[in-house]
Amino acid sequence: MSIRKALTLALVAAALVAGGVFYGLVVLLDCKEIESTTQLDAKTLFDLMKLSFGVVAGAGALVALVVAYRRQRVDEVGAHREATRLHTERFSQAVDKLGSDSPAVRLGGVHALAGLADDAPTQDLRQTCIDVLCAYLRLPFPADPGDLSDPLPDGTSPTAERRDAHQDKKDRYRALREVRHTILRLIGDHYRIPKDAGRSWQGCNLDLTGVTIDGRMDFNGAVFSGGTVSFDNARFSGGTVSFQSARFSGSDVSFMGATFAGSDVYFTGATFAGGTVPFSGVVTFTAAMFSCGTVSFTSVTFSSGLVSFVGAKSTGGTVSFMGVMGPVPSTGFQ
User: Fold this and answer.
1) Is the Cβ–Cβ distance between 184 and 231 less than 8 Å?
2) How confident is the model at residue 280 (pLDDT cuts 50, 70, 90)?
3) In the predicted model, is pLDDT for residue 262 greater than 80?
4) Is residue 174 domain-resident?
5) CA distance 296 to 310
6) How many CA atoms within 13 Å lie on the side-chain side of 257?
7) Domain that includes residue 259, residue range
């Protein structure tokens, strides 16, 4: 509604109120059987004038309130638009950093995006920042060049130039690996922050489909209380992944088709219930592969919801349900 229309409506309303007041006075005077207005003395006329001015003043106050409200709304919309514009500018700069050839600049872009997610004016903008960080983890990355053999397969020793080139590749691999591990650490940190805090990412979606986790990922004490978390077709290779004391309540967490190879994954003390809040989500390990590693559900509490291992396979790995409270899910391992 425009300000002009609002003012017009306010004036019309004031006029109607004034007319109603005077009509009421006429009716009141008629009820008292006052025969004509000539019987009204100066004091009565003065009182009527004061009443009229009061009605006009009330109308003016109403108009002032309408104008103030409209101005406040315009200011709020303008402030939100400005905050969104600044967020978009900072977002573009952070994404540019993620595309840099320098691992150090990429690392700065990661922290910039995490900070933007914390300060995002809307939940949708926060989710966008998180989506970009997850997308970075899904990108292909250079393989570990390993150690340079000496002697080489042809029986010769590597030259100094070749050694330096190999070391440069190894250093770059480690630097880019640190960027990825920093993203995982920031995600875990934000899922431990209470949901009512402004910087919490609880309730947001995490799409880590197909990622390779080749180091430590710490979700110790994290709370999954909404949203969807996908580790579908992820590969846990080396290192330790901890969901110890994590709480799953109302969130769908999927490890469908994930491969646990040489990595230790711990759900020790995790709760699939959320205390007094019923667990209405789903945690699925459907078609997951457990090989050459340890997946521990020691002292986990299952109270409701669905935890599925349908079609999961264990080939040399260890899956432990020691001390589980509540119904132990059927693994269906093949």
Assistant:
1) no
2) very low
3) no
4) no
5) 18
6) 9
7) 205-334
